[in-house]
Amino acid sequence: MAESPITAAGYLEEAPRVSEWHRFRRVFLSRGVVIFGLVVLLIVAFVAIFAEWLAPYDPYKVGVAPSLAQPSWEHPLGADNIGRDTLSRLIYGSRTALMVGFISVIAASIIGIPLGMIAGYSGTVLNTLIMRTMDAMMCFPMLLFALVLAAVLGSGIWNVIIALSVATIPGYARVTHGLALSIKENDYILAQQSMGSSYIRTVFKHILPNAFPPLIVLMTMQLGNLILAEAGLSFLGIGITPPGAAWGAMVNTGYGYLKSNPVLSFAPCIAIMLVVFAFNMVGDGLRDALDPRLRGLL
Amino acid sequence: MKKLLLVPAALILVCILVFTGCGGGGEATGASGGTLRCISGAIPNNLGYPPEKAPSDNFLMLPVLERLAEWDEGGNMIPVLAESWDVDADAMTITWNLKQSIKFTDGSDWNAEALRWNFQLGIDNNRLTDGQYVESLEVVNAHALKMHLTAFSWMMIENYGLIQVISPTAFENSGTTAEERATWARANAVGTGPFTVADWKRDDHIKFVKNPNYWQEGLPYLDAIEIRYIPDAMVAAATIEAGDADMWFAVSSVQNIIDLQDKGLKINWGPGMFITLLPDSSNPDSPLAIKEVREAIEYGLDRPAIAGMLGQGLYEPLHQMASSTWPGYVEGYDPRPYSQDMAREKLTQAGFSTGLTFKILATSAGTDAVAAIQSYLGEVGITIEPDIADLGRYFGAVFGTGWSDLVYTASGINPSATDLFIHYGPSPMTFRTGNILKSPEYLALCAEALDPMYKNVMEAMPKIKAAIRQAGEDAMIIPLWRTAEASIMQTYVHSNYPKIHGIMWSPEDDWMDAH
Amino acid sequence: MTTYILRRLVQAIIILIIVSLMVFFVIRLLPGDPLIIYVAQTAQLEAMPPEMIEQLRVQYGLDKPIMVQYVNWMANMFRGDFGESIYYHEKVSTLMRERFPVTLHIGVLSLIIGAVLGILVGIITAVRRGKWLDKILTPLTYIGITIPVFFLGILMIYAFGVKLGWLPISGYTSPFEDFWYSTRQLVMPVLCMSFFSIAANARQMRSSMLEVISQDYVRTAWSKGLTERRVIFKHAMKNSLIPVITLVGVGVGILFGGSVLVETIFAIPGVGRLLVSSIFGQDYVVVQAITLVIAVAILVVNLLVDISYGWFDPRIRYG
């Protein structure tokens, strides 16, 4: 914890690559929970990729088990009210979870990062326009923003992804903008520019590498929040359309059978919690390893 | 939340008529006193302004606002605030003879003028069903009102008789402008009922207290009724299980009914909802315009199996446009039992042997059912793309702009046979977007059932059954199943809610044992 | 300082204008026709001929061009007229007067509890790092940031309401009516709503506390022989609070978001539930007004948070 703060100037010095990577690995893997989180994510990714082979039944077919079957050897997690195998749906649900998380994060950052960059490097008018719009978007709680957007767009997993992406754009724009501003003032960059280095070149060569650590941490943390938000939207009746399997929707359906078949809601709920936990821990680990100064900001 | 979405969906389709009512029955020995603490997934938002009333504003206000007449369990009309009625089909008049010496709770008299005023309010605001046939309203004497009509059918007695009346005096004295009066009436109701409104908080609770001057001697038994709004079914179940409530109205979540029945709570069964898939068959470009395609869908669905799963044995699979609890049910008529072979054969006949793709529009309450339908139809080569809409878009489509392909609907079941006309008649009140193709033979049978020669629904029943059978022959709609609906109460509660339909209730007869 | 505050105020006004544009136009993109829903809600479809729908359209001003509607809407807002709900037939200002106090009551309590408990847990787990208290509380904070709110709600209801019978299951009573019952009723919703912020604040506090403790000036304080309490509260805590204040600012947004779920579960007639039912019912007059008010509230809180940094950390200069 006694890491000495790294100055912005220090960042820009070309540190020897090998030692940098070693330091990263040492700090990143220094905590047990981070390793645990990493293992969980690897397992979930594996399950998502090989769902077809791992799932014991067709997750979409009704009546493969008696309706509301209790856990048994044939159906380790029982079956839902229309006789679909819960384990198979849980396995396929990992795809939805990762898809919602990753696509939303990537889409939001692809839009948010350039916006922040442009705002940081442009004149007052454009800067104000972009950043105040981002501020305005941040005035809406994510769940409400996504709820209204999803109501406009209609149900379905893609619309949920769009809604969540749009709702999370401002976070990326803000972080990039802040970095762009602080780095713009840096003597080193000023020197580069005075030497005739082009704007685009400056961005790619110097700004992006510096923006990378906070952004990757933000993205990792955001992944967990997005999966939770999807669960909340499912509870409110906006989410994946049949026959798709999503953990949030499974908790929501299983919730009605909490007393007779608790496994129906507990299984997907625990899956959500594990994955959200894993993303948070890995995010923490990345933050400590990449840039401890971000603690408290992200 | 599911419940929150389902309830208005259900209610809107169920009760398109202005329901009114109360009436006899009840258990013989009523113990007096006590406050009946109820929970409900719907709560009145407009207490006493008829031009803007929604279904839950009607039946949950029955403790205060009574009806002219209502149904009995067999679907016959029985008088409440009316004493009797005389019909002259040739002259096209209905005369309502009113009970005497009944007063509104503001002290004004219930009489023919009050009834005329209530009818007129409905007609003026386009809110009286069949109001377009009223030529004039004639006050014959203080206790008789004669309606002069431009047409007559037995259904008008039901449509007019179910009106819930408010006190004209209280309304007129509540403000100087129409807007002031409307504002007052939305938050106040003055009727003839066994209770009066003591306290109301929008979307939260309503409390009724006993009307000491109620016209039925010795009634009501209860001192007060309190209805709390709890949108989430699981929370409502927990509330009644913990003993924080005495009664839970209109429960449709099967698992909760079973759980609470196991706990020893008392269950009053209601009629449930009539669940169907409706095609946009009047669109000539749609494959659904071809009868064989609609038949294929019906053959492809194992309705007993799906209903068994969704309802855990409490749903009734349907095989015709009527449930067996309904008077128009055609005994032994099951034109298209589950058969994958027949489904494929019909598709081939229609020229779609390679398969078809349809959208199904539904609300989130229908998600599981649509998933089951999707799974079954997938096996016979019909791909289903579910379109799960919010209530706004759903009702916009179902009632307004129409839908494409199929829509998953829930509609109410009346004890009378008026459902046929409300939902699927020549000029239905619910699915009136013109999406459903109705054959000339079917429409002719519907019209015949309303012939003035029939004085009540039972006389017209053979014609109604013929229309049901014709709809089956045409594969006009795809009936799915009848859902379960119940009111759940502690063992010490005696109530006849939902005596009929889930919307008929005589709160003056409810009572509780000492507990 | 004054120039900074002035500049932030100007920014806030620009943000406000953008917020209002977004609220108005995004919500007007809702696909259904609110009038048809209104008609459906009020039943009696047969008796509602197209002319009547047209008449209603004029009554609600929906026949005018959209820019005119926007200008009218903004002008009315400034006069305190938020329009009339199509579904409730009630002034939106009346609806909000009924609902906002409820949500604020629960929200403010949750915010306070989230901050106080969160900071406390954070300090305890940092100071007692690795001890049994840390080992119990830290995993709990992990659960707090991962569990879906609605699931936590129903588990609490079954545990404390049904099985143990300690607390009323649902509903809301005004504290002015029955303070004791109202408070008992609020325990579960407030805990449910603040669980995430308690956990998030605790994690934040713990890590910044650990960092501050290891810094030179705190070490100096220790070496001067000051008591533990004095070191922690006087020296370490104030500096560790800065990141937590940021989280409290964010917390206001999370609370309004969370109120949507919590109010639905615990049957609380607050603004969150009103908003959800209005979104689904496409009663956009209400949706517009509520989202605007919530956005303005969040804007103001974040403005205050920004300005308050200076108090907590004099090192921050308002440039």
3D architecture notes:
The complex is a heterotrimer of chains A (298), B (515) and C (319). Chain A has one domain (30-297): MetI-like (MetI-like fold, Orthogonal Bundle), CATH 1.10.3720. In chain A, 71% of the residues lie in helices and 0% in strands. Chain A is built from twelve helices and no strands. In chain A, α5 runs antiparallel to α6 (124-138). The two termini of chain A are 17 Å apart. Chain B has helices at 2-14, 55-59, 112-124, 154-161, 168-172, 178-187, 233-241, 254-262, 291-300, 303-311, 340-349, 367-378, 391-401, 419-424, 440-449, 457-474, and strands spanning 35-40, 69-71, 77-79, 82-88, 93-98, 134-141, 144-149, 195-201, 205-210, 224-229, 247-251, 266-269, 274-279, 316-317, 356-363, 382-389, 406-411, 478-482, 486-489, 493-494, 511-512. Chain B starts with a helix and ends with a strand. Mean pLDDT of chain B is 85; it is low at 1-28. Helix content of chain C is 76%, strand content 0%. The N and C termini of chain C lie close together (8 Å). Classes of the chains: A mainly alpha (298), B alpha+beta (515), C mainly alpha (319). Chains B and C meet through α1, α7 and α13 of B and α2, α7 and α11 of C.
Could you write a compact summary of the structure shown?
By secondary structure, chain A is an all-alpha fold. Chain A is built from twelve helices and no strands. Chain B has 16 helices and 21 strands.
